[in-house]
Specification:
The protein has 488 residues and is mainly beta. 8% of the residues lie in helices and 50% in strands. It contains one helix and 33 strands. The chain has one helix at residues 2-38, and strands at residues 57-68, 71-79, 89-95, 102-108, 114-123, 126-136, 143-152, 159-160, 177-185, 188-196, 202-209, 216-223, 231-240, 243-251, 267-274, 279-288, 296-303, 306-312, 327-328, 335-340, 343-348, 356-365, 370-373, 377-382, 389-395, 401-407, 412-416, 422-426, 434-440, 443-448, 453-458, 465-469, 475-482. Strands 22-33-24-29-30-31 form a six-stranded antiparallel beta sheet, with no helix packed on it. Strands 23-32-25-26-27-28 form a six-stranded antiparallel beta sheet, with no helix packed on it. A five-stranded mixed beta sheet has the order 4-3-2-1-19. The radius of gyration is 23 Å and the shape is globular.
Length: 488
């Protein structure tokens, strides 16, 4: 009778799983219809021209940044039904060049679990998502987190693994156990996961597997000694120019002067790593990777020897002025990473040049002179950085203002949104003579020099941009209006 009983059980499980798949397909169709019908009601005044944003609703962390079948794929935390955080889905876009993006159907919908952050890898012809299943419970802290898989053979339609969860608990039982980042080395898959100690110190855990379904805990890759926050989210681990980089988003770091002024931070530790001992030896302590107001949960991927980064272009526990328009959140432009003198350099990818539509201005801008631009523009500033530089950027029809300042005697670049809402950092301008600024309808990205200092800040002007040269010198400007590269 045992074989008959096993056959009955197999048939029952298969029937239940088939029913769940059918329900999931139907739910996805209903969601896509909702999104399509909702788009027409979105107010476009702050919608980006060349940054990834949700078609409707809420966006936060980038997920599953990867390359599959000749295209880049980027997923993101998504709540379509309101412009505030809600039960997490995975939104999805793809691109041939990291500049022109196409909106794809929502990849993951919540069932018993909310679909928190994770990553994507290619295994033969399959694209595999590994993500955190966030489950609400009736006991404190009223949630638990485990790791799930989903599979696709076309990069668009995903089926959740019937054997989920594949990693049911952190070694110490912490309910905070999220944001898996997977990669392959040799014959093994490796994954790091953000977590915390029992006494609330952030840490990153390292596992390995031969099939991505059964995982072996290896070690604590790194953890806070008490001064680096209570939780480390969204970890990433990769080799860059001969060193290993642990990129993560700590929560709970106390502000120290100019540093750590955002709600939560995003930065990296440089070190060495041994795949035999699994030991990560830290050589350069934690540094912030971006110094602006709005940058979190950055994720990277490597293609053809180049390491690319995209980040959530927003921040927790701050106003999101676009939320009244039916959407909230966007991504930064893609940056290419290099490691130079113990510091990550971020520069806009070369492909951004294809967005240059027409020359807005080339030439000298005198002291107190004003120049007007459309909503999407790239501005290259040439100046004598042995003297003070100050630029005021504001909306042609009102809205927000922001000031960019450099004082060689102080040695700091400042991004000032007014009302004492400033971010600033030291910069060595000895060999640099330029700033490169990317403006979109509600954002500013400032790359100083070769990208050794970068600021990403949301700013909300109305009716395009106006630049006023408040410097005590004339400056040279080469500016280009940029084409739209995102469809909604």
């Amino acid at each position: 009778m045992a074989p008959l009983r096993n056959l009955f059980l197999l048939c029952f499980v298969t029937a239940v799983y088939s029913k769940l798949i059918h329900e999931d397909v139907k739910a996805k169709e209903e969601l896509e219809n909702y999104v399509e019908n909702k788009i027409s009601s979105i107010n476009p005044r702050f919608r980006p021209h060349y940054h990834v944003a949700p078609p409707v609703g809420w966006m936060n962390d980038p997920n599953g940044f990867s390359y599959y079948k000749g295209e880049y794929h980027l997923f993101y935390q998504f709540y379509p039904y309101d412009s505030i955080w809600g039960p997490m889905h995975w939104g999805h876009v793809s691109s041939p060049d990291l500049v022109h993006w196409k909106q794809l159907p929502t990849a993951l919908l919540p069932n018993e679990e909310q679909c928190f952050s994770g990553s994507a890898v290619q295994d033969e012809d399959m694209l595999i998502l590994m993500y955190t299943g966030h489950i609400v419970t009736d006991k404190e802290p009223y949630y638990n987190e485990t790791q799930y898989l989903a599979f696709s053979n076309d990069g668009i339609n995903f089926q959740k693994y019937s054997g989920n969860p594949v990693l049911p608990a952190a070694p110490n039982g912490s309910p905070d156990f999220r944001d898996p980042k997977v990669w392959k080395h040799g014959d093994h898959w490796y994954v790091i996961i953000g977590s915390k100690t029992t006494d609330n110190r952030g840490r990153v855990l390292l596992y390995r597997s031969t099939d991505m379904r059964s995982w072996e805990f290896l070690t604590v890759l790194a953890e806070s000694q008490g001064d680096m926050g209570y939780m480390w989210e969204c970890p990433d681990f990769f080799e860059l120019d001969g060193k290993f980089i642990l990129l993560m988003s700590p929560q709970g770091i106390v502000p120290q002067g100019d540093r750590y002024k955002n709600t939560y931070q995003n930065g990296y530790i440089i070190g060495s790593f041994d795949y035999e001992t699994f030991e990560f030896i830290q050589e350069v302590s934690f540094q912030e990777i971006d110094f602006g107001h709005d940058f979190y949960a950055a994720q990277t991927t490597e293609v053809n020897g180049k390491r690319y980064l995209i980040s959530w272009f927003s921040m927790w526990e701050v106003p999101h002025p676009e939320d009244v328009d039916g959407w909230a959140g966007m991504m930064t432009i893609t940056r290419e990473l290099r490691l130079v003198d113990g510091k990550i350099i971020m520069k806009p990818i070369d492909e951004m040049l294809v967005l240059r539509e027409n020359v807005a201005i080339v030439g000298k801008v005198e002291e107190n002179e004003e120049v007007e631009f459309e909503q999407a523009v790239e501005i290259n500033i040439g100046a004598n950085f042995n003297k003070k530089v100050e630029l005021q950027l504001e909306g042609r029809e009102g809205g927000d203002k922001v000031w960019l300042r450099w004082d060689p005697e102080v040695g700091k670049v400042v991004v000032d949104r007014g009302s004492e809402d400033t971010r600033q950092v030291e910069w060595q301008a000895n060999n640099s003579h330029t700033w490169r600024i990317f403006l979109d309808s509600s954002s500013l990205e400032l790359f100083c020099g070769i990208g050794e200092v970068v600021f990403s800040s949301r700013v909300y002007p109305l009716g395009g941009w106006k630049l006023i040269n408040l410097s005590i010198q004339d400056i040279e400007i080469e500016a280009y209006h940029l084409k739209k590269s995102f469809p909604v």
